[in-house]
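Sorry to interrupt, but I need a hand with the structure work. Please put the record directly below this note.
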Amino acid sequence: MLYKLDVDANFLKWMAIRMRSLLLPFLLLISLSGDLIAEESPDKYALLVAVSDYDHPDFGDLGFPEIDAAAIGKLLKASGYEVELLMGSRASQKAIRTALAKFSERGNNKGVVFVGIFGHGIEYSGSKRSFYCPYDARIQQITDAKGQKLFNDDKTPKVEPSAGSLVAIDEFLVALRESAAANRVLIADCCRDDPNRPRGRSFGSALEINQLPTNAAVFFACSENQKAYEHAEWGHGAFTKCFLEQLESGKSLMGSMAEEVAPAVETLVDAKRRPGDAKQTPRLLVTGARIDLQLNAVNLKAPGMKPSPAPESEFNNGIGMTMVLIPGNREGLDYDYYLGKFEVTQREYQSLTGINPSYFHSDKPESERADYPVEQVSWEEASNFCKMLNEVRTSARRHDLSPAMEKGMGGGEQKPSEDAE
């Protein structure tokens, strides 16, 4: 038996209009860089691991590891790197090992794989093995060769990080070796206030060049029996501050960077350290004649220039539209961009184009209909609107439209939502 389905013509017309009205909002992605999304996976990848505040109270909290990692990540990202940040509680032993296990898929024979670790590190004098202390690292009491537990002069237990809860430097080196990248780099600013300092060596001091993969550079913040310093006046660890300055200057070869970083760190630390404090001399190991970070100098801050101002988290573009900053590394985008907070209104569309094509406006006073979402707009008309919008200047700078506009697809009512951010 067949039935005749009667559909109200007005309903069909409303549905068609509604679908067309959804085209415009997702065009309003305004990119900070204006770069096209690469079709291929990036051949420059950075894994940055940092912990400032540890889960276990016996690990002294640090001031700047996470700030250091974020600053380096920002510069590498500006130079085309895919940057993965594991910071704070996200830098657990499991999370770090999970990231390292994917290194066989990272990089290509023309690219770069870069690893930076920031926080506490330890080298056990008996085994000469170095370990990075992740967020969830644990403490154990030190024993002597006979297994007897040791105590300090004040009868408190002598403790050290438990090796089973740490990540060995060997694991980072194996991951670098598994990568197909032509340039493999590890920097380690993680000898800060060594939890087991009286036992001797600093992080990585026993590592020898024959343990490195080919075409690799490993740059430690300090040398044997030293520690890595940080200071509020610097806003960073000494090593990272000087390394950042070289990145900002556009230097790209690890060898030439190390020649500048090492004396700069010594000078910086000598001006602050007290009599009797250990020195800090960075140490570089290299197994390639030319380890190149492949920095894109045009995107980096040149020497003597003031840093670019941080982008606003939210701004008004001059015709009443509120734009919200969406951080990169979300939805597959590798750069920050702006998204219209609400649907484009009839008032906003008409203010630029001079026309209002909307169907749902004639039966309401202008004061009410002006804030209705605009509709009856074709793809081409929406694109032209975006081109006109691109000429609107706010906050004394221009925000260029992103070709990645499909990432903003979606509708919404013309009012703030609880999760609008």
About this structure: Residues 15-32+311-408 form one domain.
